[in-house]
Structures are given as C-alpha cells and as structure tokens.
Amino acid sequence: MIAVLLMILWVELVLTVMSLMGLWKMFGKASQPRWGAIVPIYSTYLTIKIARRPVHWLLLLLVPLVNIVVIVKLSHSLSRQFGHGTGYTLGLVFLAPIFLWILGFGSSAYSPVDATHSPQRNRLSPTGYPQQVQHPRPQGSMRAQQASAIRRPGNPSGPQAPPSLAGH
Known about the structure:
Order of helices and strands: HHHHHHEEHH
Distance between the termini: 90 Å
Helix content: 40-55%
C-alpha cells in the first residue's frame, strides 16, 4: 500500500516539474519573467497575459463550472498565440504537463494574435463603432454571369435561353 502511494507521489512530482519547466521556457519565449512560473497565482496571471485575455479571467477561475469554460478558452487562446490550433488546445486541456513541456521546449514561437477578434468578425473603427470587414466580391453578380452565358438569338455560344428571358 505504501509503495503504491509513493509511486503516485513520484508521478505527481514528475508531472509538476514538467509543468514548471514548460511554463519557465514558455514565459521566456513570450518575454515574461521566467521566475513567474514558480509563483502560483502570478503564473496564472502571466498565462492569461500571454494568452491576451482580460485580467478578470483570474477571478472567473475561482467560480465552479465557469472555470472549466475559462480553462478551455484560455488554452485555446494560448495555443493560438504560439501558432497552434484546436488539436493543441485539446492537448493543453487534457494533457497539460506534456503539452506545456512541448510548448516550452519545442520549436513553437510566440507570435501575439488578437484573441478576441477573428478576421470574419466586425472590427471597431477608430471612432469606436463597428465596421464591417470588406470581403472581395466576384466581378458582376451571379445573375449577370448567368445572363451572359445564355445564348441569345444570333449568339451560337452558351445554352439556349428560355422563352421568358429571350425578349429581355
């Protein structure tokens, strides 16, 4: 029985050291103080800061059930800041010590991305009002493209025009 408890303690110690070393290197990549990895609440604050999320998320982590959602969103923002996607987010959520180790010691580079806005969402103009993102549109409307493809009398290319459109 004591041997099993010592084995569990040993595994827990190894996972904790792996997490601390991964955070230490990750903080270095993000130009944050590395020693912050060993200070409990401060390391969470720095992680939120690296993920570019609001500081009040630190308080949301204290609320039961809400903290689960916050951890998933924080992990996703953190993985995006290092150029990874949803798969890496799942790794950070379910296997945090291993994926923090990979994040810190791997080839991932910290490249800050705005975590609150994606290119598809509305952006704020300098005046503070929402501004639609301009998406490129094809030349001409779909109806105009279809009309130009319809064969008119005397136009041998394209399909035959239905009688209702032949006179227009």
